[in-house]
Amino acid sequence: MTAVDWNAERARAIIDSHRALRGALLPMLHALQEEFGYVDQAAVPLLAAGLNLSQAEIHGVISFYHEFRQSRPGRHVVKVCVAEACQARGSDTLVEHLKSRLGLDLGQTGSDGVFTLEAVYCLGNCALGPSAVVDDRLLGRLSPARLDGALA
Amino acid sequence: MSKPVTLYVPCDAAALSVGADAVAAAIAAEAEARRLPVQIIRNGSRGMLWLEPLVEVVTNQGRVAYGPVAADQVAELFDAGFLDGHPHPLGHGPTEEIFYFKHQQRLTFARCGLIDPLSVEDYRAHGGFAGLERALTLSPAEIVAEVTQSGLRGRGGAGFPTGIKWNTVLNAEGSEKFVCCNADEGDSGTFADRMIIEGDPFLLIEGMTIAALAVGARQGYVYLRSEYPHAVATLREAIRRAYEQDWLGRNIHGSGHDFHLEVRMGAGSYVCGEETAMLESLEGKRGMVRAKPPIPALEGLFGQPTIVNNVLTLTSVPVVLAKGADFYRDFGAGRSHGTQPFQLAGNIQRGGLVELAFGVSLHDLIYRYGGGTASGRPLRAVQVGGPLGAYVPESMLGLSADYESMNEAGAMLGHGGIVVFDDSVRMAHMARFAMDFCAVESCGKCTPCRIGSTRGREVLDKIVDGIDVADNMALLDDLCTVMRDGSLCAMGGLTPLPVQSAIRHFPEDFVQGRRLP
Lengths: 152, 517
Ligand SMILES: Cc1cc2nc3c(=O)[nH]c(=O)nc-3n(C[C@H](O)[C@H](O)[C@H](O)COP(=O)(O)O)c2cc1C
Ligand code: SF4
Ligand code: FES
Ligand code: FES
Fold this sequence. Notes:
The complex is a heterodimer of chains A (152) and B (517). By secondary structure, chain A is α+β, with helices and mostly antiparallel strands. Chain A folds into two domains: 8-64, no CATH class; 76-151, Glutaredoxin (3-Layer(aba) Sandwich). Chain A contains seven helices and five strands; from the N terminus they run H-H-H-H-E-H-H-E-E-E-E-H. Chain A has a five-stranded mixed β-sheet with strand order 2-3-1-4-5, with helices on one face. Chain A is elongated, with a radius of gyration of 17 Å. Chain B folds into four domains: 5-102, Glutaredoxin (3-Layer(aba) Sandwich), CATH 3.40.30.10; 120-328, 3-Layer(aba) Sandwich (Rossmann fold), CATH 3.40.50; 331-422, Ubiquitin-like (UB roll) (Roll), CATH 3.10.20; 427-510, NADH-ubiquinone oxidoreductase 51kDa subunit, iron-sulphur binding domain (de novo design (two linked rop proteins), Up-down Bundle), CATH 1.20.1440. In chain B, the strands form four sheets. A five-stranded mixed β-sheet of chain B has the order 2-1-3-4-5, with helices on one face. A five-stranded mixed β-sheet of chain B has the order 13-12-16-14-15. Chain B contains 22 helices and 16 strands. Helices cover 40% and strands 15% of the residues of chain B. Mean pLDDT of chain B is 96; it is low at 513-517. The longest helix of chain B has 18 residues, at 447-464. By secondary structure, chain B is α/β, with parallel strands linked by helices. At the A-B interface, helix 2, helix 4 and helix 5 of A face helix 1, helix 11, strand 12, strand 16 and helix 18 of B. Residues 446-448, 486, 488 of chain B line the site of one FE2/S2 (inorganic) cluster (FES).
């Protein structure tokens, strides 16, 4: 991941650059997460001011969507598909393998800040499962061994 | 120097997930080393996903297919003379003669995999924009009449007649109107929206523009899930090129019509595929389902009359306009007109996309096309229509895949996804998963869904553990009834479908407790 450290100036610029959009909050949140890897708590007042909304409303939106992270992820993010079609191809085994290899539960980031492990519901690769995303790269026909290769 | 040989290597996300980029790079490197001039076009997928990465070579016998190709097999393909279409163990002969492909009825996916997805010229050369050109000669009411007459129904799941929806928007009063494409495609087992956006993005642009002309909208949005970054990038680039070539924007090709189109990304919420939750999300809010009425056709995005249609609905519109309503209507079965891009997924040997007229049997799709399970073990269950769809046993696979037949059998066609499970599946576990999914994804607006699914998960945990099974089965049944009858939207309302179909067709998986002392 190429995320940079939280920076209020940069955040303000990102928010400003999206202000002309109608329904701008989601595009802003995506842009912030793209830049910093997550949406920092300190962005909430900036967003509220930029959109003329209450901080509670902004927080309500951030927390509604599974995609938006509220803390800094690991340098590598692994998202493993746990939906039905991948289950039919043995995603359970893949999940167990990842948990023990990374020493993480789904939804956790390692204390060394190297890996984040997340579950996702369907990546649209349901004919070539089980599937996962490693650092924005979609991988299909995964076996524990092939996944290890991608993590190495 | 000889004329370069043209090769196609897909840049569809599924193909990329199994190494298509590495294959394309290996072909370029090998050709360079052998001083053989080649031109590599990155196309969409032909839909034969089990063959991905599928490399096609243009020869004097047409396009010849090789797959699934791994990068380290490229040298031996050159050795075997694949640039001249010569045989190799990975070879399948002419692509369009492959059984899986040959017998399909490709109306919506006619160009997918055939052309360079981002070339307006290629799109035009293969009949693209013919539907829009015709629409530009018609009045809004005539466009709506054509779509109504075609029998086209919404492909997002509910099968609502598209022409009727458009007519409502056409006749609604509003200071502005919108066309919103639902590309949230959250159902497990479905990938057709993604494939057509990546493989033929101008088709969606054309379909949405026709919709806009039909109702007098000047602004459109595509709500595309964030799990599809490749589709987002492809569609944004296609939109940029469409603006550049005057197919979007002000006064499209001198017609006097304006249409502006933007892609908006979802954020990992399944319920935002529900149309009113999607509209809330587009407005920058939490994806809470709205109570209906008012329907979005009257009060949709920003309170204005809005068309909300699925990607496959909108991408079926151009062929309706180009070839006429009757042409389209003649495909299908009963009141399900036209074709459906079925998606074969899960534990299946030949997974991929099969577009056929409604009315093909599930059995034909799964066995004649799909080749049965990938594991080679007996097929046990099939979930049709996504996570809110029913589980169907082998004995019911004779069912005709059309809206009415599926409904009568207590199942649902939904978005056309078919997920196959072999005999290792534990149905009580799948029923628990359905409740868990609903608990995680519920928007929280109504109690039957929010609380019911959480309780349902707990009860199923007990059943799986063999605790008071008979009592808990009765409780589960009550919970399902409350959810089905009391939920505001189909999230809570249909979650009982996978649960109760699993119980009905696979009761032996729910009696574990009875075997305990
Ligand atoms: C929980 C839930 C999720 C849905 N997800 C989708 C989806 O991902 N894509 C879609 O097109 N429709 C989805 N729908 C159906 C939409 O509400 C709506 O019926 C559809 O977009 C209308 O378009 P159509 O008439 O072209 O099918 C969903 C419905 C529910 C209740
Ligand atoms: S059924 Fe569930 S998802 Fe639908 S409105 Fe109620 S709480 Fe929200
Ligand atoms: S279910 Fe895993 S990619 Fe669709
Ligand atoms: S609030 Fe939705 S059913 Fe009670």
